[in-house]
Write a structure and sequence with these properties.
This protein is 72% helix and 0% strand. It is mainly alpha-helical. It has a single domain (2-9, 20-148), classed as TerB-like (Orthogonal Bundle). Helix 6 packs antiparallel against helix 7. The longest helix has 17 residues, at 21-37. The radius of gyration is 14 Å and the shape is globular. It holds the Pfam family TerB.
Length: 153
């Protein structure tokens, strides 16, 4: 499964086809994994949060979400640099879903309730690459912090 998805994601087709929903979710999950791993501390809280996000986004059970996350972990490990990886995802997911993806990234970054500059920097980079304005990313980040009951300080 994941080898086929890697081939679909990273072929050099100048006009890539949108990914089917399960493939798109695995690709998005791989971005979430990349954020969680960016501070070199990929913890259980982050894995659980990714599972919750995937379950919520597509109505999956936590077991199904964990299976997608496991595939996403393998894809993230094989994926090229973040710029190329994000560009491939951008070309294959709908514009209106990109802000939600950024929100999911912020949620993943704060799953361990710690601020990590590596994670925040990566999210800001990906937001720009996905075409999400800084202001929208900041508003989504504030909402995520509020919903998670985390105060800035």
């Amino acid at each position: 499964m994941f080898r086929n998805l890697l081939n679909r994601l990273f072929n050099d087709d100048p006009h890539p086809e949108p990914l089917a929903s399960p493939d798109a979710e695995v690709a998005i999950a791989a971005l979430l994994v990349r954020v969680a791993r960016s501070d070199d501390h990929y913890e259980q809280a982050e894995r659980q949060r990714i599972d919750q996000i995937l379950a919520r986004r597509r109505g999956l059970t936590l077991e199904e979400a964990a299976e997608r996350r496991t595939a996403a972990e393998m894809i993230e490990a094989e994926a090229p640099d973040t710029v190329r990886f994000t560009r491939q995802v951008k070309e294959r997911i709908a514009l209106d879903d990109r802000v939600d993806v950024i929100g999911s990234m912020w949620e993943t970054a704060y799953a361990d309730t710690e601020r990590a500059s590596d994670e925040e920097t990566l999210i800001r980079l990906v937001a720009g690459l996905l075409g999400v304005p800084d202001r929208d990313s900041a508003l989504v980040r504030q909402k995520v912090l509020q919903d998670m009951g985390i105060t800035e300080g």
